[in-house]
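Incident log, entry 3
Record: M18 family aminopeptidase (430 residues)
Problem: checksum mismatch between cached and fresh output.
Input:
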Amino acid sequence: MMVDNSTTFNQNLFSFLDASPTPFHAVQSLVAELGKQGFKPLSEQAAWGTLAAGRYYIIRNGSSLIAFTLPEACNLAEQGVRLLGAHTDSPCLKVKPRPENVSQQLWQLGVEVYGGALLNPWFDRDLSMAGRVSYLDQKGQLQHVLINFQKPLAVIPSLAIHLDREANQNRSINPQQHLPPIIMHTEPGEQPDFRALLEQQIRTEHADHPIGTVMDYEIALYDTQPAGFTGLNNDFISAARLDNLLSCYTGLQALLTASNRPAMLVCNDHEEVGSMSASGAQGNFLQSVLQRLTQTPEQYARMIANSWLISADNAHAIHPNYADRHDAAHGPLLNRGPVIKTNANQRYATNSETAAMFRHLCQQADVPVQDFVVRTDMACGSTIGPLTAGQIGIRTIDIGVPTFAMHSIRELAGSQDPYYLYSALNYFFN
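Fresh output:
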């Protein structure tokens, strides 16, 4: 039964990943599913008053989302809220504001590296572009629209080994010089215009939008290879943006089952660059929403004291070719369940109380659980967990699905682990 459930779950996860090449598209995908399940949109600009029992969601910047359920006769101060936190962004290459460059009669795009990306895997891939475009319509009104070229239209070719004999021993990448992708052959004297290309794409995707002039954009490149199974027995799943859209999707599916108690899914943008933004975990998005759900500071403080947050962000599985990069006693395995992430220096928010809660929860849900602690002589990454715990004052644990090749253009996880995580979160919300 577990295999059948996880297979279907993963196939739906693949569809979500493929439809979500940017944080904007990820939120759009989440909203589409929430709408089907009866969740109603709330605007931060509008007055909420006292919300009736129901299902709601709020979007900020088009790239961050909070969705929650309020059961009948719930008392937030007494019950608190069960929260699942994740992030919508992934390391990638973003197009610069003035990206046009022609060299050797080839149109290349100037790009910036977003987040801590592994750069080598970006070479020799079939790349496309997607993102948000802001434009003036024919009436002079500012509008915003999402676009996705979908087809392969860019590539970053490697330099042939004949011209770089040391490539397999010592290959360094200069992001400014070596990463601009090629998108088109040009004729002598031709001057490409990236904004004109975006206008053309908007007309193609959104024929009903009377576009005038493109004003600005946030466009990212992505790998066109779809998500899928790999391994002789479909032991693994391979995809872009597993970190951390896997947690967003799994949290969404668990939230849809919540009925007995107040539950909330928080999907922040900008985690990969430190979370310091209006839509990041260091912004006030979550705090603002939580405060508006109560009437007095006393009720708010009691609600926070009775709440729990699971911060779900992928964990480093022990790699068979680099096992020495792990503490041998804390090397999570693929397909062996979610990982509790602990760090004595508070790079993760886990403490003994929250770890014990999650272990007990997994025990009740019949889900295996593992531990990760970084080697004592290595630096430790972080998540939205400590940021949210410090800002809100909520009990928090950091967990995640074990993963290989984190921050690569294509990551790998065990095919059983997403459903294990879903089972644990489903139990948590209910």
